[in-house]
Write a structure and sequence with these properties.
Structural class: alpha/beta
Helix content: 40-55%
Radius of gyration: 21 Å
Shape: globular
Largest sheet: 9 strands, parallel
Distance between the termini: 20 Å
Mean pLDDT: 87
Low-confidence stretches: 1-28, 225-231
Order of helices and strands: EHEEEHEHEHHEHEHEEEHEHEHEHEEHH
Number of helices: 13
Strand content: 15-25%
C-alpha cells in the first residue's frame, strides 16, 4: 500500500489542497513531529447517500468512519444560519456532518416567546430544525446525521416528545425524522443510568433510532447543563463501566448505540493546562471489552463520542480517534467563530452602519445594502464554516465522501 507524507509545517490551507488533490486518500495518522501518513481510504458504503442518513445507513457510515480513522464533527445549531455553516463546510471539505439541537436551541428556534409549557416550544423547534435540514441537506451532496444533545432525567418530557415525532414520521416515511438522540444520565448511579437507557433504546430500536448515552460527567457548562463544581473523579470513566453498558444495551434487539465515555472532557474553552484529557481510557475500554467478548467484532467494537471538543489539542483528538471515536462535539469554538464573523463585518463597515442615510460617500447616500441582515449573517456563516473546516482537518474528516 503506497503511503504519502505531508509536513504539518505547511499552511493548513495547503494541507487541505493536498488532500483534495490526492482525492482517493485520507489522513491516517500523525506523529509527534507533525508528519502525516496518507493511505487510500476504504470506499463509502453504498447505503450512504447525500442527505440525512438513518438506520442501517447510519451504522454503515459510523463503521466507515471507524475503519478509516476519522470522526464526524457535531455542531449545536440554533438557526438556519448555523445549519448553513455546517452544510457549507461539509460540502467544501468533502466530509459528513452532524447537525444537532439542544433543548435550549430547539426553544430558540421556535421563538423565545412561544409557549413552552411541557417543552412544547423546545420540541417544536427541534422538529422544525430537523425538517429544514431534511429539505436542504441533499443539495449539499454530503451525508448528514440529525441528532439532539444532552437530555437529563428532568428533561425527559422533551425527549419523549421527540420520540413521538420520530414515530409519526416513521409511520409515514419508513424511517425516523432524526438519526439519533442523546440521553445524559451520567450523574445518576450507573445501574439507573443503564436501566433507563435500555428502556429507551428498546423503544428507539423499533423506529431505527440510535441512542447516544453518557458515562462519567463532562465538566464545565453548556446550554443549561452545569457541571462546573463536579467531583473531579467523575470526569473519568472506568473500562468496567463501559463493559456494563455494552453488556446490557447489546441485549436490545436491533439496538444501535454509542457511548460518550468521559476522559476528562470539559465543555467550553480554558487556558492550556487546565484540562487534562486521558484518551487512554478509551483504548483501555476497547481492550477490556475484547477480553470479555473476544474479537468477533474486531479489536475496537465500541463507538465512542468525544464531548467538549472545543479547545482540545490535535494530538488528543487523533489519539481518541485511534480508539474508535467517531463523533466529536464542537460548540464553543463555533459560537465564537459565528460572532467573530459579525464582529469583523461591523468593524469593516462601521461608517456605513451608523444610520440609514449618510456615509463617507455622501450625506445623502443610503446604507441599506450594509445593514441588510443577510450581510452580517453571511459573514458569520463564512467564519463558522471556516472554523469547521479546521475541525474537520483535526478529525481526519476531509475528502472522505
Amino acid at each position: 500500500m503506497q503511503l504519502f507524507e505531508v509536513s504539518e509545517s505547511a499552511p493548513r490551507e495547503r494541507a487541505f489542497a493536498s488532500q483534495r488533490a490526492l482525492g482517493d486518500c485520507r489522513v491516517l495518522s500523525e506523529d509527534r513531529a507533525g508528519r502525516r501518513r496518507w493511505q487510500p481510504r476504504l470506499g463509502m458504503p453504498e447505503s450512504v447517500k447525500p442527505g440525512v442518513v438513518t438506520g442501517k445507513a447510519l451504522m454503515d457510515l459510523l463503521e466507515y468512519a471507524k475503519a478509516n480513522k476519522f470522526a464526524i464533527p457535531a455542531v449545536n445549531c440554533v438557526s438556519s444560519c448555523s445549519i448553513n455553516s455546517c452544510l457549507e463546510a461539509a460540502k467544501k471539505h468533502g466530509g459528513p456532518m452532524i447537525v444537532q439541537f439542544s433543548r435550549g436551541g430547539g426553544q430558540f428556534l421556535a421563538g423565545k416567546t412561544a409557549d413552552n409549557t411541557d417543552d412544547a416550544a423546545a420540541i417544536a423547534g427541534c422538529v422544525a430544525g430537523a425538517l429544514h435540514v431534511r429539505q436542504v441537506a441533499e443539495l449539499y451532496g454530503v451525508p448528514v446525521i440529525l441528532h439532539t444533545d444532552h437530555c437529563q432525567r428532568s428533561w425527559l418530557p422533551w425527549f419523549d416528545g421527540l420520540l413521538e415525532a420520530n414515530e409519526k414520521y416513521y409511520a409515514q416515511h419508513g424511517e425516523p425524522l432524526f438519526s439519533s438522540h442523546m440521553l445524559d444520565l451520567s450523574e445518576e448511579p450507573l445501574e439507573e443510568n443503564i436501566a433507563t437507557c435500555k428502556e429507551y433504546l428498546d423503544r428507539m430500536a423499533k423506529v431505527d433510532l440510535l441512542l447516544e448515552m453518557e458515562l462519567g460527567v463532562t465538566g464545565g457548562e453548556e446550554d443549561g447543563v452545569d457541571n462546573t463544581g463536579i467531583d473531579n473523579s467523575l470526569l473519568y470513566t472506568q473500562p468496567e463501566e463501559v463493559y456494563a453498558v455494552y453488556e446490557e444495551l447489546s441485549k436490545v434487539e436491533g439496538g444501535m448505540f454509542t457511548i460518550a465515555a468521559a476522559f476528562g472532557n470539559v465543555h467550553g474553552v480554558y487556558a492550556p493546562g487546565n484540562v487534562k484529557l486521558t484518551p487512554e481510557i478509551l483504548h483501555n475500554s476497547q481492550k477490556y471489552l475484547v477480553e470479555k467478548i473476544g474479537d468477533k467484532y474486531g479489536d475496537k467494537p465500541l463507538f465512542f463520542v468525544f464531548h467538549g471538543g472545543s479547545g482540545s489539542s490535535r494530538e488528543d483528538i487523533r489519539y481518541a480517534i485511534e480508539a474508535g471515536t467517531i463523533k466529536m462535539n464542537i460548540d464553543t469554538d463555533t459560537q465564537w467563530a459565528f460572532w467573530d464573523g459579525i464582529r469583523e463585518y461591523e468593524a469593516a463597515n462601521r461608517d456605513y452602519l451608523q444610520g440609514q442615510i449618510g456615509n463617507p460617500d455622501g450625506e445623502d447616500k443610503p446604507n441599506k445594502k450594509y445593514y441588510d441582515p443577510r450581510m452580517p449573517l453571511r459573514s458569520a456563516e463564512e467564519k463558522m464554516a471556516e472554523r469547521l473546516g479546521e475541525a474537520m482537518d483535526d478529525l481526519n474528516c476531509i475528502n472522505v465522501v
